[in-house]
Amino acid sequence: MWEKVKSFASDFFVTGDPLIYGADVSIVLAAISIVFVMTYFKKWGWLWREWLTSVDHKKIGIMYILASFLMLFRGGVDALLMRAQLVVPEMEFLTPDHYNQIFTTHGVIMILFMAMPFMFGLFNVIVPLQIGARDVAFPFLNALSFWLFFSGAMLFNLSFVIGGSPDAGWLAYPPYSGLMHNPGPGQDFYIWGIQISGIGSLMTGINFIVTILKMRAPGMKLMKMPMFPWSVLSSCIAIIFSFPILTATLALLFLDRYAGAHFFTLDGGGNPMMYINLIWMWGHPEVYIIVLPAFGIFSEIVSTFAKKKLFGYKSMVYAMMIISILSFLVWAHHFFTMGSGADVNAFFALTTMLIAIPTGAKVFNWLFTMFRGKITFETPMLWTIGFIPCFVTGGMTGVLLSVAPADFQFHNSYFLVAHFHHVIIGGVVFGYFAGLYYWWPKLFGFKLHERIGKWAFWLWNIGFYLCFMPQYALGLMGMTRRVATYGWDKGWWEMNLVSTIGAGLMGIAFVVQVWQIVYSVKHLRKDRTGDPWNGRTLEWSIPSPAPLYNFATLPQVTAQDEWWEEKLLRDNGQSSSVPPALEPIHMPKNSGIPFVMSMFWFAAGFGFVFQWLWLIIAGLVGVAVCMLVHSFNYDNDYYISVDEIKRTEAAIREVPN
Amino acid sequence: MKASKAVRWAASLPMLLLLILTTTGCTEKFVVLDPKGPIAEQQRDLIIISTVLTSIVIVPVLILTAIIIWRYRDRKGRKAKYTPGWEHSTKLEVIWWGIPIVIITILAIITVKGTYALEPSKPLVSDKKPMTIQVTSLDWKWLFQYPEQGIATVNYVKFPEDVPIRFEITADSPMNSFWIPQLGGQMYAMSGMAMTLYLQADEQGAYWGSGANFTGKDFTKMYFDVHAAPQDEFEQWVSEVKASSPVLTLDGYKRLSEPAASDIRTFSAFPEGLFEMTVTKYASSHNHGLSWEDIQKVQIEE
């Protein structure tokens, strides 16, 4: 009996690596201390009532952002481990197997479990406030999306200590990711972690399209909408068309692995090239999905801190919509070297280059928003200004890569690695940081400390260029991606050393940011205006943090920069008429079902990974029961009375100093 | 005058970088930019042309960014204009939709021409008859078969200079990518099909190649040596290999294809049709309904 338990445990848990044992210990210690603190302060009820069951878009947004910061930490540690392994030739810090797992989890986590939830977090906290709505169109679905993402992410991260991490790269190309070459459970963790969170992503896409199309405040025509919701709309359109492809592709890969199908296997008539096409039909739109909202954020910030209307509003909107559509027509540029022939390669090279046109126009519009403006350099604006040269040069190397015949020399090299980090960090990460700094006071009612924020900004930027510029050179020196080590003979070590130093600086920058948050909380300086940056759009017209119902009375919109125009009127003494009378506000009720249902999904996913039929059935039955219970629950809304609105509003405006 | 100083400084940076590179002899390391064959040379030219073309837009934009940010920063006693309501100018918008369109159009023409000219399966123009080398990606080594000479090598490939080489590439392993940076761009090695890649070395010399696509544990050890030699030296090497190296048998191939890294090896002969067998054993039309193991058994017994 004991022997059986021992042999099960040695397969079940990941063993043999001191790094992982260390992580095991710290995970257990962290878990124990969280349970202790929560119990000691009697916070479990609060956690359940206020957060786990909440359908409030603001709280869901905060949970998304918190989760994405945790994932940024995990993905960042992965990155630092990789750079440590590559710092000098013939390093023996990580074994090749371990290295392969780490670059796989780094990629998956950074894109799917860091960038995506960070983006969804910003959608959630800001879109309803900017369009003058009280919540998203489907609040229950929104909570379910978050918890599905969360359980998918946890399932994926669990592979670190149980069963073993996936090691087939972030897109898991077969045949290597097939059963023949990759029998372990790691690949199944990959499939189910992404599948479960992918359902959530798709639902969020639907939710925000409907929210933006149907829930805008009276008078806000589409062409009067702020730029951020426009970017969210263009991104969500790409989500709803691309995520089903991902789900189908991974489902087929799962059938290959679980049911002995032959969609992508070497034998039995399988075709791995089909997988590579399908995964990039999702994968390419995916990178535009995450970068388009960043464009929206920059547009808001540039206009606020240049104190000037956004230049070329219409052409910004068209540019984003064109990018959203073109993103579906470029996927084959990820494998020009797969022998598709000159016709196919020429087509996809051209469509890829076309994307540079609307993107270039956007850059000019940002520049001319600042032209004849009055620019101030608070942290959100700093990130925006850091973004422009970074993204412009990163976009330029993208155009170089799109020259198909030249790509034969760039493909799979560090040139490519440098390019996509260049645009994803310079575009997406800088954008989300800018957005977080910008909207932080709206979320929590106080600004983050500016000076520490500037330190973080400069450390990030210097670290970024030190880390990735040498990688372009390494690519031209013939260094290919995913090599676990290299020899002294190739002359690659100087550039790798510099690159690792840069990565270290970015790691320090992240710590500085965490310190900045802690410091700002400790030395809290509350913002009473609700409008600390002299903003232009509706979210700044309400108190910070926004009350549960956001707007006591729904605003009447007449202009693009509604709040800015309103402030101009007030300055001229032409303040708009008396606010309309308060009315009871219709709100959604909290529900525990999204959380419980996602735990059942987690259980089912875990069952699929280890092929425990009983757990699969139990999990899926639980999911079905949750759906049924919710379908027959008609008690899911309530009204906030006028008295309570009055009390809340009075309390917000009269907090003692 | 601080602005122009910053611009000058920014312009001197790339110069400095270039100076460091050339004086320290670093340029040799940039194998992609140091081509030794017609394909790599044309690809290097394309890289340079496209870099220059895109720089025509990018550099002014970077300078413009610096100027705008400097000139329109908020400070006391500023003389620059402030027009908070100015939000549209058709003329300007036409200009900055137009500039990228022009540059991209030029680049597109060059790219399409290059794509057809450098299609990897297109034979090279040469008065010499091309030589075929069959390449198989194994876990984790490269097998080269010389059907015309009847020899085979592992992780080492030698061929005459100035002769077009027709590489036929397949895999008996997960998908890899065959890349000799100084001779030309890469081509995926995939099971169940033979990809064609024409390369040529214009001068004799020792180069290196690699497996550019991740295939698992020892993928890092899939570098191979490339040697372009004068015709007579090549022929002498072939006869040496024929005289002194062991024969690669079917059983030997089976052992060779087991997952492990390998040193350089040479074989004086290989089984007839080994490459074709490797390609067809995965091809769907030949083995539908049979498992991979079954196929292997059938063909090994023949």
From TrEMBL, chain A:
Keyword vocabulary terms for this entry: Copper, Electron transport, Heme, Iron, Membrane, Metal-binding, Respiratory chain, Transmembrane, Transmembrane helix, Transport
Record bears the keyword DNA damage: no
Transmembrane segments: 20-41, 62-82, 102-127, 139-162, 189-210, 230-255, 287-305, 317-336, 348-368, 380-404, 416-440, 452-477, 497-518, 599-632
Ranges where the Cytochrome oxidase subunit I profile domain occurs: 40-558
UniProt KW Iron keyword: yes
CDD domains associated with the record: Ubiquinol_Oxidase_I
Protein family according to the UniProt entry: Belongs to the heme-copper respiratory oxidase family.
Protein's recorded name: Cbb3-type cytochrome c oxidase subunit I
Biological source species: Paenibacillus mendelii
Automatic annotation (TrEMBL), chain B:
Pfam families per UniProt: COX2, COX2_TM
Annotated TM spans: 46-73, 94-112
Membrane topology: Multi-pass membrane protein
Start and end residues of each Cytochrome oxidase subunit II copper A binding domain: 128-240
Record EC number: 1.10.3.-
Keywords per UniProt: Cell membrane, Electron transport, Membrane, Oxidoreductase, Respiratory chain, Signal, Transmembrane, Transmembrane helix, Transport
Catalytic activity: 2 a quinol + O2 = 2 a quinone + 2 H2O
Domain (Cytochrome oxidase subunit II transmembrane region profile): residue spans on this chain: 24-122
EC class: oxidoreductase
Cross-referenced InterPro entries: CcO_II, CcO_II-like_C, Cupredoxin, CuRO_UO_II, Cyt_c_oxidase_su2_TM_dom, Cyt_c_oxidase_su2_TM_sf, Cyt_o_ubiquinol_oxidase_su2, QoxA
Primary location recorded for the protein, binned into one broad class: membrane
Compartments reported by the entry: Cell membrane
The UniProt record lists the keyword Zinc: no
Keyword Metal-binding: no
Matches recorded under PROSITE patterns: COX2_CUA, COX2_TM, PROKAR_LIPOPROTEIN
NCBIfam families, sorted: CyoA, QOXA
Family under the similarity heading: Belongs to the cytochrome c oxidase subunit 2 family.
Free-text function comment from the UniProt entry: Catalyzes quinol oxidation with the concomitant reduction of oxygen to water. Subunit II transfers the electrons from a quinol to the binuclear center of the catalytic subunit I.
Record's protein name: Quinol oxidase subunit 2
Organism annotation: Paenibacillus mendelii
Lineage: Bacteria, Bacillati, Bacillota, Bacilli, Bacillales
Gene name, Swiss-Prot/TrEMBL: cyoA
